[in-house]
């Protein structure tokens, strides 16, 4: 393989990893608050369709990014209201958020099928992008790539270095005690869920404005679910989410390059790789009980109804 | 801002257990009416086209039964899973694998004919779905792997496998390169019940039988009790001597087998060959059916008919009003949301609390 191909592979790996990273970081915060939102796929596709639509409407991809973040957060409110205010089953409600999101996006996106997309252009950091090798990889990427890196650092800092982050973890680990300490458990969880929605929306916008700048029905293709798996894989630690997202980005991209090089394996088998890799990784992680148990938020998935 | 407060009921409300699905349907119809009005269509005409028109003609009732068949078969199996706290959401993949396994005979051995072909196909369909469902069950029982994610990932794998088969080794040699298998011969086709008036096949009878059997097991046998106890309190189940690990296999294998049966029944009864896509998402819609039916197999029969109606209504509304048939998916999503919200009324009293008067802030 020539150096150009290797550089292309690394560049595209970052592009494939970015939406997974952003969505998984959002879900990590949600799960740290003790809420399991299985609606990532649905919020992501809502972000993708509103991002594409707003970019078309205003002729600016930045408006698309903005709209996707706002709509992702608003859409997640539906889930928050049911699971938090009405104490519904989180698994079932998350599933219905995914089904509803795919339905709404499919309907709203019908008018966009076949339209040429508007691409969010890469931004080269002056000076730094001219560095050999790492310049094009780190400093000449699309804006959402930069956001994803800042987000990873920000989420780590928030969770482990701020008082609000400590409160978030307390709520996720023992909502009863947190409530007794006077913490408003439900408000914390509402905010966490909306943050997760905003992140999933942004991840969706990356798909329809950067990754493949067009609208295709079901274009998230299970990435929301892979993001959920990444959170488990990372055992709720932000830096491990980064590692996991890039591993999965690499698997996705290796598969594309293998197809392009004409590897004598049917393309369907290569396309199945990311999904199979997800299962393998989940098995490896779950068989190591000690590591998963240590960081799992103890209240994860349990509804909380304050006694009055 | 107004706030919602929940007060736990001392026991489940029998009244709301009965009417909560109706409340959910009413909420969905209301949201649907608003949605159609927003699209500039008359809500009355739209809801009529959606929910009444498909019921006015006999051939259309047949189509309703055809669509309800896979939904009921899958959802009945899922009720065992969800009651026992096993979250199998990969029924769509088990449906596909059942269809593939069941199609081995008519596709690879079209020369084999006779009355035995169809029963063998159905059994292989059951086995194919069950085998695919065993994977997440094994991973959960052996390694504690999250079954939601593993069963869902296997949906994509199954769909890609079907895609490969119909474009590759199983493609019809006389099919002008279309991505589809050869058409099933007459002995491999599930017969129609009343062929004079429409296409409905005997799959619907299987669905009703499955619902009755599972209803009996759940409500009248020790196994049913075991399923509920392990679902509600694994600890209590352990004290009673029930094995949660065996239940994982039981729930996944039964629901996988029923989803696999739904797959081969759909292919053999309604389609007549394998194609790259053989389901409009029955495996996912069945999740809605299971919850709308309150995880009770008899309720699931009614819920399956209602969700089948939403597919037909989507097609009818597209023809008569020019709205996208994708509205059906939106309806289905809204319906599941409404069902879950309405179910809260069974366990809690809901109070809307007015904002408290402004508090005095301490002086700075």
Shape of chain B: globular
CATH topology of chain A: ABC transporter involved in vitamin B12 uptake, BtuC
From the N-terminal CA to the C-terminal CA of chain A, the straight-line distance is 67 Å
Determine and state the CATH class of chain A. Mainly Alpha
Note the beta-strand portion of chain A.
Answer: under 5%
User: How would you name the oligomeric state of the polypeptide chains in this document?
Assistant: heterodimer
Largest interface: A-B, 45 and 49 residues
Mean pLDDT of chain B comes to 91
Verbal overview:
- The complex is a heterodimer of chains A (308) and B (364).
- Chain A has a single domain (3-295), classed as ABC transporter involved in vitamin B12 uptake, BtuC, CATH 1.10.3470.
- Helices cover 72% and strands 0% of the residues of chain A.
- Chain A contains 13 helices and no strands.
- Chain A has helices at residues 3-32, 40-58, 61-85, 90-109, 134-138, 143-161, 163-173, 175-180, 185-211, 223-233, 238-260, 267-286, 289-295.
- In chain A, helix 1 (3-32) crosses helix 10 (223-233), helix 2 packs across helix 10 (223-233) and helix 10 runs parallel beside helix 12 (267-286).
- The model of chain A has no long low-confidence stretch (mean pLDDT 90).
- Chain B is mainly α and 364 residues long.
- Chain B has a single domain (58-322), classed as Orthogonal Bundle (ABC transporter involved in vitamin B12 uptake, BtuC), CATH 1.10.3470.
- Helix content of chain B is 68%, strand content 3%.
- Chain B has 14 helices and two strands, in the order E-H-H-H-H-H-H-H-H-H-H-H-H-H-H-E.
- Chain B has a two-stranded antiparallel ribbon.
- Chain B starts with a strand and ends in an 11-residue tail after the last strand.
- The chains are: A mainly alpha (308), B mainly alpha (364).
């Amino acid at each position: 393989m020539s150096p150009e191909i290797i550089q292309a592979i690394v560049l595209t790996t970052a592009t494939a990893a970015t939406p997974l990273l952003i969505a998984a970081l959002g879900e990590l915060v949600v799960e740290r608050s003790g809420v399991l939102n299985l609606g990532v796929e649905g919020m992501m596709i809502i972000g993708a369709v509103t991002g594409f639509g707003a970019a078309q409407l205003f002729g600016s991809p930045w408006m698309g990014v903005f709209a996707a973040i706002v709509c992702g957060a608003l859409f997640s409110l539906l889930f928050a209201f049911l699971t938090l205010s009405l104490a519904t089953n989180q698994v079932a409600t998350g599933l219905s958020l995914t089904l509803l999101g795919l339905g709404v996006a499919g309907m709203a996106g019908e008018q966009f099928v076949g339209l040429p997309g508007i691409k969010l252009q890469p931004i080269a950091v002056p000076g730094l992008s001219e560095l050999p090798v790492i310049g094009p990889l780190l400093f000449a990427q699309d804006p959402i790539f930069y956001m994803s890196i800042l987000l990873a650092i920000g989420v780590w800092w928030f969770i482990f270095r701020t008082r609000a982050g400590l409160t978030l973890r307390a709520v996720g680990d023992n909502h009863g005690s947190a409530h007794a300490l006077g913490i408003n458990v439900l408000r914390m969880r509402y905010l966490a869920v909306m943050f997760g929605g905003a992140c999933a929306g942004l991840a969706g916008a990356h798909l329809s404005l950067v990754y493949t700048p067009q609208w295709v029905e079901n274009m998230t293709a299970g990435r929301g679910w892979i993001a959920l798996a990444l959170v488990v894989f990372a055992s709720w630690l932000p830096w491990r989410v980064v590692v996991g997202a890039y591993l999965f980005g690499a698997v996705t991209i290796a598969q594309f390059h293998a197809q392009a090089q004409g590897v004598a394996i049917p393309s369907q088998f290569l396309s199945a790789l990311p999904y199979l890799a997800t299962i393998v990784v989940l098995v490896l992680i779950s068989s190591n009980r000690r590591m998963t148990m240590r960081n799992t938020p103890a209240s994860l998935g349990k509804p909380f109804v304050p006694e009055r | 801002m107004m706030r919602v407060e929940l007060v736990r009921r001392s026991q489940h409300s029998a009244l709301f257990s009965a009417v909560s699905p109706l409340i959910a349907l009413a909420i969905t119809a209301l949201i649907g009416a608003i949605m159609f009005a927003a699209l500039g269509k008359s809500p009355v005409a739209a809801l009529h086209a959606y929910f009444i028109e498909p019921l006015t003609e006999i051939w259309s009732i047949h189509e309703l039964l055809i669509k309800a068949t896979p939904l009921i078969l899958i959802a009945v199996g899922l009720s065992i899973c969800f009651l026992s706290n096993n979250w199998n959401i990969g029924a769509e993949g088990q449906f596909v694998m059942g269809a593939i396994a069941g199609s081995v005979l008519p596709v690879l051995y079209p020369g084999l004919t006779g009355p035995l072909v169809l029963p063998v196909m159905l059994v292989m369909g059951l086995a194919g779905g069950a085998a695919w469902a065993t994977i997440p069950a094994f991973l959960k029982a052996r390694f504690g792997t999250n079954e939601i994610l593993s069963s869902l990932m296997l949906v994509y794998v199954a769909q890609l496998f079907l895609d490969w088969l119909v474009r590759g080794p199983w493609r019809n040699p006389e099919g002008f390169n279309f991505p589809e298998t050869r058409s099933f011969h007459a002995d491999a086709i599930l017969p129609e019940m009343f062929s004079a008036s429409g296409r409905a096949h005997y799959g619907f009878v299987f669905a009703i039988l499955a619902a009755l059997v599972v209803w009996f097991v759940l409500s009248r046998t020790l196994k049913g009790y075991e399923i509920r106890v392990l679902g509600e309190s694994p600890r209590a189940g352990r004290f009673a001597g029930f094995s949660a690990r065996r239940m994982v296999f039981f729930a996944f294998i039964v629901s996988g087998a029923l989803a696999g049966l739904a797959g081969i029944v759909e292919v053999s009864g309604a389609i007549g060959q394998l194609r790259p896509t053989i389901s409009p998402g029955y495996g996912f819609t069945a999740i809605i059916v299971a919850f709308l039916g309150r995880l009770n197999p008899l309720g699931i029969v009614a819920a399956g008919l209602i969700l089948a109606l939403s597919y037909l209504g989507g097609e009818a509304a597209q023809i008569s009003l020019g709205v996208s048939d994708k509205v059906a998916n939106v309806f289905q999503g809204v319906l599941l949301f409404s069902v879950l919200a309405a179910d809260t009324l069974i366990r809690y009293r809901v109070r809307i609390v007015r904002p408290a008067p402004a508090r005095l802030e301490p002086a700075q």
